[in-house]
Amino acid sequence: MTFFQGVKAIVAKDLSMEIRGKEIISTTFMFSLLTVVIFNFAFDMAEGNARESAAGVLWVAFLFSGALTMNRGFMYEKDEDCMSALMLAPIDRSAIFFGKMLSSLLFMLATMTIITPIFILLYNVNVMERPLWQALSFFLGATGFITVGTLIAAISVNLRAREMMGPLLLLPVVAPVVIAAVKFSGGLIMNQPVEQLMIWMKVLLIFNVVYLVVAWMVFDNIIEES
């Protein structure tokens, strides 16, 4: 089995399990929706305040959903005692990482796609006035978050307090990506010129590349200890 066939098989397996159980999407969607609604009532969201706070509120909802998605990364295999079988599969170990990462990324992007229009309706702020740039910031921010999250999930899967330790290990590492994504998204919402925001886009791109390379290099050793 080639590398790409292995990645495709793992993504297809995770997607089919989610379609049958609907655990990740339903949980992350409801949690993100609750976060957005609570913020709507907690702050004075006049039009000016809403535009200034929109990116922060939206990304808090995204990060909560991503953290829940990340926690489920290797739980199916752990719960069913299939980690050894997964490691014995005739595929490169890095294919396991990229398969898990892509399936988690798809789940997070699906939640973001549903939450964003709900946010626009609740806050009366069109965060997608420049849709291509905003979609790119969402995609790169989610990719960096999920890349590290998948690696952290592989590390914490055997920990007793994995639901708590996963986010605690994850958030400090992905802080540069989160800050850059919020700054870029917020600047687009505030109608700042894209040229002024490109420094944040460069930060997103650089950290995505760094995270992917580091994760690819260390995943073999991490999964051996799982």
How is this structure best described in words?
- The chain is 85% helix and 0% strand.
- It has 9 helices and no strands.
- It has helices at 3-21, 23-42, 47-71, 75-79, 83-88, 93-123, 131-156, 162-189, 194-225.
Summarize the biggest pleated sheet: none
Q: What average pLDDT do the residues reach? A: 83
Instruction: Supply Rg.
Output: 18 Å
Structural class: mainly alpha
The total of beta strands comes to: 0
- Estimate percent helicity: over 70%
List low-pLDDT spans. Answer: none
What are the secondary-structure elements, in order, as H or E?
A: HHHHHHHHH
Beta-strand fraction estimate = under 5%
Keywords:
globular, 226 residues, 9 helices
Task: Summarize the SSE layout with pairings.
Elements lengths: L2 H19 L1 H20 L4 H25 L3 H5 L3 H6 L4 H31 L7 H26 L5 H28 L4 H32 L1
Helix pairs in contact: 1-6, 2-3, 2-6, 3-6, 3-7, 3-8, 6-7, 6-9, 7-8, 7-9, 8-9
Offer a quick outline of the entry:
This protein is mainly alpha-helical and 226 residues long. It has helices at residues 3-21, 23-42, 47-71, 75-79, 83-88, 93-123, 131-156, 162-189, 194-225.
